[in-house]
Amino acid sequence: MIKILGIIGDPISHSLSPQMHTAALRRLRLPYRYLPFHVKPAELGRFIQMARECHLAGLNVTIPHKEKIIRYLDGITDEARRIGAVNTVFWKGKRLLGDNTDARGYLHSLKEDLEFSPRRKTVLILGAGGAARAIVDACLATRVRRVILANRTLARAKVLSHHARQFWKTPIEIAPLKAGVLKNCFPDIDLLINTTSVGLSGSRFHNLPLHLLPKKAVVSDLVYRPRMTPLLREARQRGFRVHEGLGMLLHQGALSFQIWTGQRPPLKIMKTALLDALR
Ligand code: ATR
């Protein structure tokens, strides 16, 4: 019998996950279909009820449901609790549980693409929204030396740093996203990560003092449309190692795939499917 997997979100048509997972399921000849489900916020509870009744095999969850879905599940993993959001729903016996593979996916991708780990490094994170929560957790879980969280709206950075403080000893320093303020810490940064939406469709930061970064610094961007964002392009031109956002999408998906199917995900096939879908 065919089992159903899928992704829920609103909107959902832009999601690349169906192509990525379908390619992997086909390659391994597994008896699943992975479908996009357009679920509006008011429909979320009913959808999860339906997922239970039909015994859907698993789900990915994207904007705007990553936080709200928690109340409809039977439990969540420690990682999902720390991040405060769920991106993967799976069955454990009769319980429908939530996990979050974003942080692990990010770390896997940094390791695979650049052989790099934030462990004992100084990290500057730009942005304090949903995506930043997973990145903060990834950094603190690997025991970074220092984390600076810079956001346009300082209050939001404060909320995120307080949240993380419940789980981790390492304090997060916060700063406004202003070149004049950030320039003092730039010479110490080993890893600069953009988690904001700046870079989407070619939009750009103004006045980020990249020239002050040390030569060894890695510049990472979660935005993957375009793959080479203006930030990454400038960083590459200046000779820094750069890390594209597509890797996190790939590896968070690969981890979900493994949770649902118990099979080792065919990473190459999944990456090719993502690249085809982006083209
Ligand atoms: P996501 O779930 O993708 O992180 P989000 O929660 O809406 O989306 O967060 C978007 C992030 O991008 C926030 O950090 C936001 O800054 P504010 O908290 O000040 O809104 C940041 N952001 C969006 N547009 C920006 C811009 N033009 N300049 C700087 N930061 C921006």
Give me the number of helical elements: 10
Shape, per Cα inertia axes: globular
Give the class from helix and strand content and strand pairing.
Answer: alpha/beta
Alpha carbon gap, first and last residue: 33 Å
Bound molecules: 2'-monophosphoadenosine-5'-diphosphate
What number is the mean pLDDT? 97
Helix content: 25-40%
Oligomerization status of the protein chains: single chain
Low-confidence stretches: none
* Strand portion: 15-25%
The total strand number stands at 12
Major β-sheet, in short? 6 strands, mixed
* Rg calculated over all Cα atoms: 19 Å
Q: Gist?
A:
The protein is α/β, with parallel strands linked by helices and 279 residues long. The protein has helices at residues 17-27, 44-53, 78-83, 102-114, 130-141, 154-165, 179-182, 230-237, 246-261, 267-278, and strands at 3-9, 32-38, 58-61, 75-76, 88-92, 95-99, 122-126, 146-151, 172-176, 191-194, 218-221, 241-243.
Q: Main attributes?
A:
279 residues, alpha/beta, six-stranded mixed beta sheet, six-stranded parallel beta sheet, 10 helices, 37% helix, 20% strand, globular, binds 2'-monophosphoadenosine-5'-diphosphate
Helix and strand topology:
Elements: E1 3-9, H1 17-27, E2 32-38, H2 44-53, E3 58-61, E4 75-76, H3 78-83, E5 88-92, E6 95-99, H4 102-114, E7 122-126, H5 130-141, E8 146-151, H6 154-165, E9 172-176, H7 179-182, E10 191-194, E11 218-221, H8 230-237, E12 241-243, H9 246-261, H10 267-278
Parallel strand pairs: 1-2, 1-3, 4-6, 7-8, 7-10, 8-9, 10-11, 11-12
Antiparallel strand pairs: 3-5, 5-6
Helix pairs in contact: 1-10, 4-5, 4-9, 9-10
Bound molecules: 2'-monophosphoadenosine-5'-diphosphate.
